[in-house]
Fold this protein.
Amino acid sequence: MVVSARIRPLLDEDVAAGFPCAVFPHAAQAGAVDIHDLYNHPRGRPILKSSRYRVDRLFDSQTTTEEIYDNLVVDLVPFAWNGGIGTLFAYGQTGSGKTFTVSQLEKLVAMSLMDGSLEGQRQVYMTIIDLAGNSAYDLLNSRKPISILEDSFGVTQLAGANEHLVQDRDEVMDLIERAASFRRTAPTLKNDASSRSHGICRIRIKNPSTDSDGLLYLIDLAGSEAARDVAVHGADRMRETREINMSLSVLKDCIRGKVESDVLAFSAGPKSKQKKPRVPFRQSALTKVLKHVFDPAGSQACKTVVIACVNPSLADVGPSKNTLRYAEMLRVLIPTVPDKMEPNPTAPGAWTNAQVRDWITKNSGTPPIWSAVLAPTESGAQLLRLPAAEFESRCLKTPGVSAEQAKAFRSKLWQTHIDSQRAGDSLNTTESNPSESTEPDTMLGRLGPTSRLSSRDLDSTAVTMPFKERIRPGMVVSWNQPPGRGLAPGMPDDLKLAVVLCPAEAAQGAVKDVLGSAVNPTEGEHIHAKVNGTDSGARYLCALVTPGLIAEACELNLWRQIVIDVGMMEKEVILEYDAVTRLIMEQWESKLAYLQLAVVSRARAGAIKVTELRCSIIKVLVVEILEYIRVHVMHGGEVVKKQAEGRRILAVNDRDGMA
């Protein structure tokens, strides 16, 4: 995001009224602007107070709109042409030149779009709407009211707004002029035709060959007013002013929150445990329309330009300070990478768009997948965050590419990312744990963020023993369901996993399992399973895995417990958790089956006392798909892998209430 400021020329009426220019670019510092104000001291001569503000780019009163376009806005057009989202905001006090600036920039954008200089064939659609408070109107349909709705896919729709296909520059100019005639204006002390609503020009650029869209937003925000300007307003105008100020405040919070979120992702990476900034884009109609610009979960590349328009007159020093203070708050400094730190060529998360395209061309198989279609603007990190369906859909737009090739290529990209993360984790572990230290790491407090991500026994020598002789809490086992026991109706035959919680004998009192049977029955109440004609007396309370509420999903049922005899257990299953990718990979026999762990996010009150340790297991709920889960599953020493989209696991247990 680029934050800039434009200083309007001093008007003749200001000069005639005796108000000099009070806003000046700082000569010795690029992007700095000085504001001088006279303070009338009650006991002496007036005092000159100066303030300095910083923006990314500053344009003085001699700068033309064409120069601003070439310096600031021109890159947004090809960016949107190639599938990105470009957004321009003009903000400032009423009468500071916002509408003039945006209207001139709209004409220059029309020329760039329609002069034939951009590569490829596109279809250009225009929609221009007006937002007044929470009401929206179509300026290209005689100001007809429209609705701002969010569909089931989370995409904001302008229900009722006309979208016009334009073929040349003249059509674009005609639509802009028609919309301007319906724009809501009202006289203020500073401007006889002040914009009292937010004007949004949306240009959708469709690429027919890839069926993808780029978006360009040109937004003329309603003018803010100083306290003295609203003193003569009636109740309706006061309400209008409050709505404008509220929407501008939400917009500021959204812009800054989105930039801070991007900075956090850039500097700390996906492993960061820092609290993510809040982006309240649902709090106003303006930011709802621009949800995909601000949503941190969005995968489409975005560029944003803010132009703060400033009135240089001494009479408007107060509003000018507020405008520049607002603009300065939007600036978030991106941390720079030291020169000695080169991007890792083997880590997709650090690749630029050029590196991504080169890797796609060389590694996507035959026929090569079109890199310009798969990653028109995305960096490596953005491509990794692309949903599987969207990734594969882009791959299939290359002639000759099959669904199997698309899935295999996505798997290859993720495997490259996983390997690079593992290499980094191994390096970090080596640096933090010197080789001369041979003490086993068995204390939870000493575990690092990449340690103990496996269900494997801490004692490496234990694997030489049969697993039935070393069963422990947390061990994952595959087990054989006895006929007629009815543990989970409809559960697939090839899906029998359980997590050992504790020996059944540890349960006290009348604790019962999911079948209503006593967990720790008295003598004679339980008939042990027969294994090769002998009884196996050891019994364990375990948590089941059952089919989930959505297709191809299952739930880890920590509250659905069953007693399993050792004789029913077949193998130990090693689950290895990767905190970066969160993918689960599973294969039973020679059959591949996509498995999604659908578990937890919010805990519902009500702990159940299960063991003498009073282990509290809080019911887990199926929630929105949040992240990916990756797990290696080892069967009898053979590691098999499979990718599937999954859900985050968050189990709350233990008497210490650890999450």
